Amino acid sequence: MASEISPRAEISPNAKIGNNCKIFPFVYIEDDVVIGDNCIIFPFVSICAGTRMGNNNKIHQGSVIAALPQDFDFRGEKTECIIGNNNIIRENVVINRATHTGGQTVIGDNNVLMEGAHISHDTKVDNDCVFGYGTKIAGDCQIGHGVIFSSSVIENAGTRVGAGAMIQAGTTFSKDVPPYIVCTRHSEYGGVNYTMGRSYGVDEKTLKHIANAYRLVYLSNTSLFDAVKQIEEQVPDGPEVRNLIEFMRTTQIGVIGKK
After folding, report:
1. Count of beta carbons in the 10 Å neighbourhood of residue 65
2. Taking CA 135 as the corner, what is the angle to CA 211 and CA 37, rounded to the nearest 5 degrees?
3. CA distance 143 to 112
4. Helices 204-218 and 239-249: angle between axes, nearest 10 degrees
5. Separation of alpha carbons 43 and 92, rounded Å
6. What is the structure's pLDDT at 259?
């Protein structure tokens, strides 16, 4: 089915628009843009060069996709902003494309970005994440599957958030947030995120193993290195436990709540 495109939208003839899209008045789409099928682009959205968008996305009023990176190292290079499928991007969201040639900012599938969220250059977001009102993600961050950011969260540059974590409202953090935990507004460990674990089908036994693993990290005086060794020795193996071990073993900047 042909797309429904308002004559009052300004769209480059070089942009590629998929089937059955609806593009409202006053939308601005530049060269070097690819938009998949069944997308809805509401008024006053700007979709800039380097956008590669999948199917079934809804982009609401005032949002800017593939905005130039807010990075002093940017020299006008050709980069990309990849948007997957089934994402909801609400009003006034800004997503920057990457900084250097060949780089990508990536938003996966089934994510919700609420009003005023900002995803900066070169950040990689997995699937099924929620970004609350006014949440700001700095450059070069990595965000795992099923992460929930409450409102007004600030994630500083170069940090990672593990799968299934939840960040409480008003939190600012500069270290990695391990998977499956609640990060409190004081950037401290707030326990295991049981709600998210259960919603993704993690059984109660595995949740107990995860809790025991984090007791060794946060309720002991050992170093992170020694805590990881103790987890390997004392906590039954499983995909989630292996994931949290790998996350903590590969941190370059440390994890929240652990000196």
Report:
1. 28
2. 100
3. 13
4. 20
5. 11
6. 79
List residues bridging with 112 in a β-sheet.
88, 130
In 3D space, the residue among 27, 78, 32, 88 whose CA is nearest the CA of residue 57 turns out to be 88
Rounded (10°) angle between helices 204-218 and 224-234? 150
Ranges of residues in the chain whose predicted pLDDT is under 50: none
Burial of residue 2, with CB atoms counted within 10 A of its CB: 0-12 exposed, 13-18 middle, 19 or more buried: exposed
Residue 150: CB atoms within 10 Å: 18
pLDDT at position 24 is: 98
How many alpha carbons fall within 13 Å on the CB side of residue 169? 4
Phi and psi dihedrals of 208, rounded to 5?
-65, -40
* Type of residue found at 202: V
pLDDT at 178: 98
**Token match 């040639």: residue?**
101
Residue appearing with tokens 């070097």: 32
Q: What global pTM score does this model have? A: 0.96
CB 189 within 8 A of CB 256: yes
Task: Give 2-26 pLDDT, tens digit per residue.
Answer: 999 999 999 999 999 999 999 999 9
Q: For residue 130, give Cα distances in angstroms to 70, 91, 125, 134, 151.
A: 23, 14, 10, 12, 10
Measured between its terminal Cα atoms, the distance across the chain in Å is 57
Cα 3 to Cα 22, 33, 38, distances in angstroms: 6, 16, 8
Which pLDDT score is estimated for 18? 98
CA 177, CA 239: separation in Å to the nearest integer? Answer: 18
Separation CA 231–CA 225 (nearest Å): 10
CA distance 117 to 256: 22
List, by residue number, the catalytic residues. Answer: 121
